[in-house]
Specification:
Blueprint (H helix, E strand, L loop, with lengths): L12 E2 L3 H6 L8 E6 L5 E6 L4 E7 L8 E8 L4 H16 L6 H15 L3 H5 L4 H8 L5 H11 L13 H13 L3 H21 L17 H6 L9 H11 L3 H13 L11 H4 L4 E4 L10 E4 L2 H10 L23 H12 L6 H14 L4 H7 L8 H4 L5 H19 L5 H7 L5 H19 L1
Parallel strand pairs: 1-2
Antiparallel strand pairs: 2-3, 3-4, 4-5, 6-7
Helix pairs in contact: 6-8, 7-8, 10-14, 11-13, 11-15, 16-18
Length: 449
């Protein structure tokens, strides 16, 4: 019995025409499939599960195992006639011993070389590629990050990003460390590492020169001699700072808000009368808080006093609650203003973040545990709670704020705070816990009987 040789062809071998390609389907269970042309050796269509279909030319190279692939173009924009012409050219190159993909690789190498020659200044300039990337991804702290990079790496602005070495970066970090600004040095290393990771992803460098870097482990002497980071103001200091802040205009009211609400110093500068001042609370948008969490402060009697005082500094051209005295925009220049507040109050040096620590310390004295304190100041819950527990616990947070504000009100009224501590020492959740424990005891007692 004679057999037609045409019938012995594999199912994926056929004359590739636009009509045949349009009628073909991807076999079930496959992520990709090739249709090979019977008229022109090497020409094929690559079908993907995503629906894409691409003309390719398949060839082998002497001394290399397997089949190589050159992409010709996407069907149907790249039609049958154009694909056959491109395949003919690629076949001629293979006959001459030339890899058809060499030209494409050379173009990619040239592009990479051009990117690696891009200077650091071009990448981190204002409105440059890196800043545009940060703002486009809505990174909250993009301004401090860009400021740290521009100040810390200014000696290397003319250097190509591909030539920047770990030693040069760490020399810049060590230079800042020697001035006593350990936090600024740590920030520079962190932001530079992030910049280099972005450069790797964008093709400016092949690898991150800070990858795998670990700071030297502290010795026992260094740990003992290291100053504890931050502090909480004592009661006498809170009294002095509160009264002194009343003399410093809009900044003074902002400092009071930081003590009452526990926000980070930049957060109150963004709140506006119409958007964020509600009937029962002040709200801080998640978009510009460090942790990306919504943060609310209830309007207690002290908060209302601060808002009433802030009304006196409201600008006709701005809706900010605490506008800059000079521009009417967002307030900045905290270092000088905090130093002035310290001199006016006559207290030991502190930072705006210490006011946040002071509020948490007061809440602890009033009997509220660390979990409630974290919720009050907009910090992330620990562990798996942040995944499964979506209760805002507004009532208990409001009670914690009210207790802390009563404590502060007693202080600034020149009264001793001891009585307030005793009154507020019991956590409002304790009666509920006691009731649950009582039920458990009754249950086990009944079981034992």
């Amino acid at each position: 019995m004679e057999t037609n040789g045409k019938d012995l062809r594999p199912e994926n071998h056929l004359k590739l025409t636009d009509a045949a390609i349009r009628a073909s389907t991807l076999p079930s269970g496959k992520s990709q499939h090739y249709l090979h042309d019977t008229e022109q050796p090497g020409l094929a269509i690559r079908m993907r599960a995503t629906g894409g279909r691409t003309w390719v030319y398949m060839f082998t190279k002497p001394g290399m195992k397997g089949t190589q692939r050159k992409t010709l173009g996407a069907w149907p924009k790249f039609n049958e006639k154009a694909a056959r012409q491109a395949a003919t050219i690629a076949a001629a190159e293979v006959v001459k011993g030339v890899d058809p993909n060499d030209a494409k690789r050379e173009v990619m190498r040239q592009k990479l070389a051009d990117k690696q020659c891009t200077t650091l200044a071009i990448l981190i300039i204002e409105d440059g590629p890196y800043e545009t990337s940060l703002t486009g991804r809505q990174v909250v702290n993009w301004k401090p990050a860009m400021s740290a990079l521009r100040r810390g790496l200014k000696d290397h602005f003319d250097l190509a990003i591909g030539e920047l070495t770990r030693r040069q970066i760490m020399a810049a970090v060590d230079k800042i460390t020697k001035t006593g600004k350990r936090g600024a040095a740590k920030d520079l290393r962190k932001h530079t590492h992030t910049l280099l990771e972005w450069c790797v992803g964008e093709g400016y460098v092949e690898h991150n020169v800070l990858a795998g870097y670990r700071a030297p482990k502290e010795t026992r002497a260094q740990r003992v001699g290291r100053r504890t980071k931050g502090r909480a103001l004592i009661d006498e200091e809170i009294i002095k700072v509160w009264h002194a802040s009343g003399k410093l205009g809009a900044f003074g009211q902002l400092a009071r808000m930081c003590l009452l609400g526990g926000p980070r110093r930049s957060e109150p500068t963004m709140i506006e009368w119409r958007k964020h001042i509600m009937d029962d609370r002040i709200t801080f948008d998640a978009a510009w808080t460090k942790m990306g969490l919504h943060h609310d402060v209830p309007r207690t009697h002290l908060v209302d006093e601060v808002l009433a005082a802030a009304k006196h500094f409201q600008r006709a051209t701005s809706d900010y609650v605490f506008p800059s005295p000079k521009t009417g925009g967002q307030m900045s220049g905290f270092t000088k203003m905090v130093n002035r507040l310290i001199r006016e109050a006559g207290v030991a040096k502190f930072t705006m973040h210490d006011l946040r620590r002071s509020l948490r310390t007061i809440m602890s004295r009033c009997g509220y545990d660390n979990e409630i304190q974290r919720l009050c100041v907009g910090q992330k819950p620990r562990g798996i709670d942040q995944v499964y527990n979506h209760d805002e616990q507004w009532i208990i947070r409001k009670m914690a704020f009210e207790a802390a504000h009563d404590y502060i009100a007693e202080l600034v009224g020149a009264k001793r705070a001891g009585k307030v501590v005793r009154l507020q020492r019991t956590n409002p959740l304790d009666p509920i816990k006691a009731e649950l424990l009582g039920r458990l005891r009754e249950h086990y007692a009944a079981g034992a009987a």
